[in-house]
Structure formats: structure tokens, C-alpha cells
Amino acid sequence: MSQASQDDVEQEGEAFQFTGPLLVNKLQEAGIHANDIKKLADAGLNTVEAVAFTPKKHLITIKGISEQKADKIIAEAQKIVPLGFQSATEVHARRAELVHITTGSKQLDALLGGGIETGAITELFGEFRTGKSQLCHTASISTPKAPFVQYGCWP
């Protein structure tokens, strides 16, 4: 592979990098004392997201967290985790980019709105011998092909 195409692949990989929940220890880098972080974790707030969404009233009830500390902790957590408003247009644009995996049946894909949606949990239930396992097998075979078929690269 040439260097130019390798750089393109690396840039594409960076654009689609997934970031999951951040551990509450990340607040220590923002200047929150380790003892306060331990108190938050002991109270069940194990991620920065959980701290950012927790009301100040609840943080104050944690032993050793004063109102000033709660304000500082919430401010730092909200700097790390953006809690901004998203318009319906932005949400719609993000949902339009979702890839759907085919089930192998055009009728079932139509019922599911285009197939099995990526980035979501799809649950199958029903009586035995109704094709649940077969559908899962078909989806597992179709999944690796999905991005290639979309861009016309699949042989």
C-alpha cells in the first residue's frame, strides 16, 4: 500500500474513533482532589458523565463535598463532557448516517425500516423454530460486507 493511501486510511480511522464513558478519575487531571474523586466513586458516581448529570443538590449530600466543591466538580465535569443542546436537524442528520444491515429478506428489511440498525440493540424473541438463530447467523455474515457493499468495493 502506498504512503498516501495509508495516510488516507489513518485519517478516516481518526474520524470514526469511538469514545466511551470516561472514568471519574479523569477529573483529577482537571484539578479535582483524589479524595473528592474517591468520595464520588463511593457514592456510585463512577463516570464523568454521571457526575456532570448529577444535580448539585445530590452532590452536596455526599459526606465531605461542600457547596463550593460541588460547584467546582460539576463545572469541571461539564467542561470534559459537553452537555449542549442538539437541534432536531442535527439528530436527524446523525440518524441518517446510520448503516442498516440486511436480514436477507426484503420484506423483513422493510418492516425494520431498512434492516437491522447499527449502533442499537435489536432483540429477537418468539417461539422455537421460527428462524431467530438463522436471522442472527445471516446478520453475522452480512455485517462484515456492509461497509464494502455501500462504497462499491466488495468483489
From TrEMBL:
PROSITE patterns: RECA_2 (PS50162). The keyword ATP-binding applies. One of its GO terms (cellular component) is condensed nuclear chromosome. It comes from Armillaria gallica. GO terms for biological process: chromosome organization involved in meiotic cell cycle; DNA recombinase assembly; DNA strand invasion; mitotic recombination; reciprocal meiotic recombination. Residues 97-155 form the RecA family profile domain. GO terms for molecular function: ATP binding; ATP-dependent DNA damage sensor activity; DNA strand exchange activity; double-stranded DNA binding; single-stranded DNA binding. The keyword Nucleotide-binding applies. This is Rad51-domain-containing protein. Keywords: ATP-binding, Nucleotide-binding. It comes from the Eukaryota. SUPFAM superfamilies: P-loop containing nucleoside triphosphate hydrolases.
